[in-house]
Amino acid sequence: MTAYLITNVSVVGAAPTDLLIRDGVVAATGAGLRAPDAAVVDGTGLVALPGLVDLHTHLREPGREDAETVESGSRAAALGGYTAVCAMANTSPVADTAGVVEQVWRLGREAGLVDVQPIGAVTVGLAGERLAELGAMADSAAQVRIFSDDGHCVADPLLMRRALEYVKAFDGIIAQHAEEPRLTEGAQMHEGEVSTRLGLTGWPAVAEEAIIARDVLLAEHVGSRLHVCHVSTAGSVEVLRQAKARGVRVTAEVTPHHLLLTDSKAETYDPVYKVNPPLRTATDIAALRAALAEGVIDIIATDHAPHAVEDKECEWAYARPGMLGLETALSIALDVLGPQWELIAERMSRAPARIAGLDTHGLDPAPGVPANLTLVDPAARRVIEPAELASHSRNTPYARMTLPGRIVATFLRGEPTVLDGKAVK
Question: Tens-digit pLDDT profile for the chain (425 aa)?
């Protein structure tokens, strides 16, 4: 294993120092380190962060390898500065058995670019009718601890309660896609002024807020862990704030696109802006940004959702919802938050690693710590070209936008997966 000496780098925004990586860990830190056998990486002007961790990634394999594979998604993640991603269960077949989650886990290990931690389905086939094999998935080689029917809400309150009770036995988490389905039938975008003007069926904010309110009460009653996926409304923030004040064991995420883009993008009728939950208003964005800074929202998660061309380049009503996110998430965070390195490290690495129980990730570079880290050039600006993305898909809402920040290098257990901005393998 090659040793690496990263010189003159700022660790999470602190004064420049040197980092020596050897045998998979950070062996030493400090100014003027010497290691004749190490490959030197000039860190001047760069910021070292703990490797980013994504709690919400769609890798599509098995079943939709035309849109993404575990390997291509892992490469996109590494190029985005990630060292671990949690893969959602809505594959084909659905990841609702030990066999499927182990397949995804093994594909991630074979790719070797990031640690891929599968998320298991809550219900069989995501149908919302009966619980999946939660215990078998937890006991599998993949050691699943997060379960979600993402893309589908666990709408039945009794089933949701039973799921929360079941995973409590091994300190698992139910990650809910909060959407009351009776309120969103035929919905195409956020319900509001823009949807009225465009004549598109709206998705009301209360459809999200009502499920979150119900689920925090269930989690409080059971004493179990609840995670709320892709929070998108100001009202949801208030429900979460009140729940946390009461000590409910609830965490929440927000996506980069819900921090930046508004429902006005639908005026173009470009299906790249169709996403679930939909883009909301500027008022919602302001509330989400404030909640992220405050800690009411715990993490930024990408909801990386690649789609094949035929599923996106069609009429708005028939397009599948979802956007790419892994290769642009840190740039969006920098654009929205500025160079608040402590906040970025907490919301994009430390907190998601803690929630997922990924003990070797989310750790600031320090002696003895596993060398899972990323180097960022905050002064760089780049134009997002869809054809240059590592994903098999091209459905990025940031095409040809100029965004701040560039991932220069990513290390997974001391081995570079990205060097000089390019994937190593």
Answer: 899 999 999 999 999 999 999 999 999 999 999 999 999 999 999 999 999 999 999 999 999 999 999 999 999 999 999 999 999 999 999 999 999 999 999 999 999 999 999 999 999 999 999 999 999 999 999 999 999 999 999 999 999 999 999 999 999 999 999 999 999 999 999 999 999 999 999 999 999 999 999 999 999 999 999 999 999 999 999 999 999 999 999 999 999 999 999 999 999 999 999 999 999 999 999 999 999 999 999 999 999 999 999 999 999 999 999 999 999 999 999 999 999 999 999 999 999 999 999 999 999 999 999 999 999 999 999 999 999 999 999 999 999 999 999 999 999 999 999 999 999 98
The tokens describing 247, both together, are: 């000590």
3-state secondary structure 121-140: CCEHHHCCCCECCHHHHHHC
Cβ–Cβ under 8 Å, residues 48 and 11: yes
Domains present along the chain, CATH in parentheses: 4-47+367-423 (2.30.40.10), 52-356 (3.20.20.140)
pTM score of the predicted model: 0.98
Q: Is residue 187 within 8 Å of 278, Cβ to Cβ?
A: yes
Measured distance CA(329)–CA(324) in Å, rounded:
9
Catalogue the active-site residues. 303
Query: Tokens in use for 396?
Result: 């990025």
